[in-house]
Amino acid sequence: MKKLFFFIATIGAFSILSVNVNAQVTSNQELTMGIPEVLLINAVNASGVTGAVSLELTTTVAGTAISGGTGTSYAQLSSIVTSAQTRKMTASVTGVPAGTELSVATAVPTNANFAGTVGTGTGTLVLGATAVDIATGIGSCYTGTAAGDGYKLDYAWDAGAAGAYGTIFATGATTATVVLTLSAGY
Amino acid sequence: MVDFKRATLIFTVIGLLFYMPSSGYCQNNNTAEIPLMLSIPPVSLINFAVDGEQVITYSYSFLEPNNVEQVITPNTGDNTWLNYSSIVNPGATNYITANISSGSLPADVTLRVVISEDAGFGSGATGTPIGEITLSGYPQNIIVNIGSCFTGSGTNRGHRLTYIWDNPESYNYSNNYENGQAIAVTYTITSTE
User: What pLDDT is recorded for position B22?
Assistant: First the structure.
């Protein structure tokens, strides 16, 4: 009797398992995945906030030219490119006082907050009304948004061409505007 | 009632279409501006550069960098160079004066100074030298119409000063120097403002 009961129970168990195995079905869920191109840029000062950068041009030694107008800002960006595409960042400036010259040296991010292909920064370039490349080879990347994150832009403001020194005049505070542009790709 | 629902649906769809970014498939805010506040304060700095072989004392103060004082002797000669830096406001110029600021000359002794043209090692609107003046206790212009400029720093830079003594044998420099009564000349740079 016991053997008969065990036999029937075993058959029943296999039957249930068989039913369960047969009950497993597969289903495919299609995911449409898209990553749009992204080109976002923001400019912040050394404190990590949007605001003016102050530069002063002067001298304390008789006989020497005014010099030493230096300041730093950061370009923070997010970039997603299509395959085989890179971007570049350009800069131009308006409002620089006569007889003086503004130049910028660009360094790509180096701290721990960036990721991706940040490209290459250029050396010191004189800025003018016509945009010049200050970083090239930018791929998909992000820089971070904290203070000190991003492409470091070191400004040097000095007397310009020697012949134009006489056109310099004292000024309390005049505003020049640097425009950064992240290209759509090339 | 049915018409109201349909109209609501149509307006909602139209509203959503207008609200969507025009690019539709690209997040784009690709320019940023950085304002730079640029300032250039007025500058009027003056100093001497003296040939090292000459024993000439002079004083310069960082607190008053717009004037310098030089103790001179009948042997001072032409080994002093006046260096300056100048940044002016629009419509203004700087000028340099000279006067005897210490000591007194015997009645039969006169002291003249000849101011040369700028040596040309700097840049900008360097001033116009008056040429030659007879020094006295009252400040007299020696270089005028100084705009924004710099002369360079050191000997052979800026304007050369040549001192000429008339009847110098009447002036006992050593005696006066020991008594703290040596002749000193002060040069001051001032704005016309």
Answer: 37
Contact between residue A159 and residue A65 where contact means Cβ atoms under 8 Å apart: yes
Rounded Cα distance between A75 and A88, Å, is 12
Which chain B residues touch A37 with a CB distance below 8 Å? Answer: 25-27
d(CA A1, CA A19): 27
Match 């971070």 to its residue by tokens. Answer: A144
- 3-class state of residue B102 by DSSP: strand
Whole-model pTM?
0.80
Mean pLDDT by runs of 10 across the 186 residues of chain A is 56 50 75 92 93 94 94 96 92 96 96 94 96 96 96 95 91 95 86
Query: Residue B79's pLDDT band (boundaries 50, 70, 90)?
Result: confident
Alpha-carbon Rg for chain B, nearest whole angstrom, is 33
> Within an 8 Å CB–CB cutoff, is residue A186 touching chain B?
no
Question: What distance in Å separates the CA atoms of residue B189 and residue A165, rounded to the nearest whole number?
Answer: 19
Interface of A with B in 95-154 (CB under 8 A): 95-97, 99-100, 102, 153
Contacts of A176 in chain B (CB under 8 A): 35-36, 38
Interface membership of A67 toward B (CB under 8 Å)? no
Report the residue of chain A nearest B60, measured CA to CA: A62
Within 8 A of B33 by CB-CB distance, chain A residues are: 43, 177-180
Parallel, antiparallel, or unpaired: how do β-strands B149-150 and B123-124 relate?
antiparallel
Looking at chain A, list the stretches that DSSP marks H as alpha helix, in order from N- to C-terminal side. 2-23
- Determine the CATH number of domain B43-191: 2.60.120
Residue among A155, A157, A140 at smallest CA distance from A36: A140
Q: Hunting for tokens 């004037």 — which residue is that?
A: B67
Mean pLDDT of B147-156: 96
From residue B134, give the alpha-carbon distance in Å to each of A27, B107, B173, B175: 109, 14, 19, 23
* Token pair 């004083």: residue: B59
Q: What is the nearest CA distance from A21 to chain B, expressed in angstroms?
A: 45
| Side chain identity, residue B129 | P
- The pLDDT assigned to B21 comes to 39
The closest CB to that of B33, out of A64, A170, A177, belongs to: A177
